[in-house]
Structure formats: C-alpha cells, structure tokens
Amino acid sequence: MRARREVCIKILLVATGLLLIPLSLAGCATAEKQPIVFGDCSWDSVQVHDRIAGFIVEHGYGYEVEIIPAETAALWTGMRQGDVDVNMESWTENILDIYTAAIESGDCVDLGPNYPDSGQGWLVPTYIIEGDAERGIEAVAPDLKTIDDMPEYWELFKDPEQPDKGRFHNSIPGWKCTELNSLKLQAYGLDEYYNDFICGSDAALSGSMFAAYEKGEPWFGYYWEPTWVLGLMDMTYVEEPPFDQAEWDNETYGCAFPPTQVNIIVNSGLLERAPDVVEFLESYETTAALNNKILAYMQETEADTMAAALYFLEEFESVWTKWVSADVANKVKAALP
C-alpha cells in the first residue's frame, strides 16, 4: 500500500455557520489560480472520487485542492454560495427539491453522470443459477430468471425461523427502500411465499449475504451498488418488470426501482474561473462495477480513501487517461508516489 501523503489542515467557516475542516492536497496555490474546493460527504465512494479528481486537478492542472467534510444540506448550501466548488456524487433522486432549486437558480451546473449505472434491486448468488465448478457448487435453480419464478423456489430460501415460507432479506428500518421493498413483495404476490425479514442494520444485511455466500448457500434479498459487498461477491439481479412511473405514482410498485442519477455538480462560478477543470470533470465517468472493485479493495486491504484513489490511478490508467490530455496525464503519472 502506498504511503499516505501528508496533508495540511486549514479551517474554513462556510456561510451556513458550520465549521468545516478542509484537507489540502496541495502545497501553495499559484497567485493566479484560486483553490478548487471539493465537498466530502460521509460515504466511501464519494470520498474516493474527491481524492481521485483532486489529485488530477492538483498535479495535472496546477490548482491547490481543498477537501471539505460536509453532509448533504450543508454541502448544497456551500455549493450555492460558492464556498464549495465540486460535488462528485449528487444522488439526484434523493434530493430532487434541493437539486432543482440549485440548478434552476443558476447557482450550480450539472456536468453529467459520474457513473450512470448505479443500481438497487433484488439479488441471488449467481452460483445457484449457474453453479460454481471451482467451489464444487451445483446449480440448484438453473431456470430462475425473473420475479415470476420466485414462488417456485421459495423452499430453496426457506426461513429458518418460519420454515413454512422463504425468507426475503429486506433493508434497514426507517429507510424508504425498506418500505418500498415490502410493498413490492405484496405487489408481486410474493408475501404469500416469503417472509419479509427486515434486517436491523446494514452490517446485518450485508453480513447475512456474505455468510451465505461463504458457505455456498442460497440467499434472496435487497442490496444496492456501488458497494464493497457486490465487489467481492458474484450476485445476480432477479429480473423485474421495467420501471413504470405510473406504478410509482399509483403507489402500487409492481416494477423495478427507478433509475438513479449520480452526477457531478459544480458551482457555476467554476465555469469561468477554471474552465480547464470543468472540461476535465465533464469527461470524468466511471461505472458501478468499477466502483464496486475500488470499494472491495478498501474492504480487503483496509485501505483509506486516499490509498484507494492512488490504487485507482495506478491500476486503471486506461480509464482516467481518457479524461485528460496527454500532457496532463504525464504530469499526474509523474506525481504518483
């Protein structure tokens, strides 16, 4: 694992009244270039992207970079006021009112997807469908494909506590997706065949999947990506009817979850102040599968988010060099420790 680089700690008071601590990735900015400020939320994937983009902006384009911890509400306030320049992961559907206000006011600009294929849905281990010769696992449900097949296989996923039904592993109490999963079970008529088992925490949910996977046993439940869990385990989505807005509007939910936008947003002032950085961020795009790999690397090696960013820059050069000119790419590669 690469040695962690020293960072300078500065204090920045944003207009929200929150005291935020920026982590500077650079030394001193040149006189003509103002620092580029990234808003750093609490989940790993956005923190890794902040550090990937920050490393490229610092070493490839010559800007000082500051990474400021802030949760969603404070981040968007800072973005609109110009205290924060870049949000590398805007989960738009989760904050639609805030997002719409920021874009329509002209305070912020949407540069497009970071990864356009983030997903959530109902999964089973791939080996129950295809088998796994290397592990000596035979396919026990070779014809399982769609949600309509699940009543036939309920005994395969038998609930150990209520064995007259199968078990569907639902997500966390209080999460909106948990409520939706319960309604979807009813919409598909699967509540007749499966118990709606609501896990107490993400650790319990992912742990149940991981434990079954390690033993080569069946598992059926909800999860999402990008996550380290789906980076380490080969899981298959059970096919549902395509998302239908009418189903959602009518609150019947007999279809797949709506597509999720995970976009890169900038303060509009950055377009004039740092057009080269904006052009780079417009080209920046990854995939859910790639993010799964990065998060799995963190899980397996206990790497922090800066180490994960360096891992990406070293191991996936063919991806990120497409976002920048050859000159910028050479500068970034020369700066890698």
Description:
Mean pLDDT is 90; it is low at 1-24 and 26-31. 40% of the residues are buried. The protein is built from 14 helices and 14 strands. It is of the alpha+beta class and 337 residues long. 38% of the residues lie in helices and 18% in strands. The radius of gyration is 22 Å and the shape is globular. The chain has a four-stranded mixed sheet with strand order 1-4-6-5, sandwiched between helices. It folds into two domains: 8-117 and 261-335, D-Maltodextrin-Binding Protein, domain 2 (3-Layer(aba) Sandwich); 119-249, D-Maltodextrin-Binding Protein, domain 2. β10, α5 (176-187) and β11 (194-198) form a beta-alpha-beta unit.
CATH superfamily of the largest domain: Periplasmic binding protein-like II
Given the structure, what is the number of helices? 14
Task: Return the string of H and E elements.
Answer: EEEEEHEHEHEEHEHEHEHEHEHHHHHH
Helix content: 25-40%
CA(first)-CA(last) distance: 11 Å
Please provide the count of β strands.
14
CATH architecture of the largest domain: 3-Layer(aba) Sandwich
- The percent range for strand residues is 15-25%
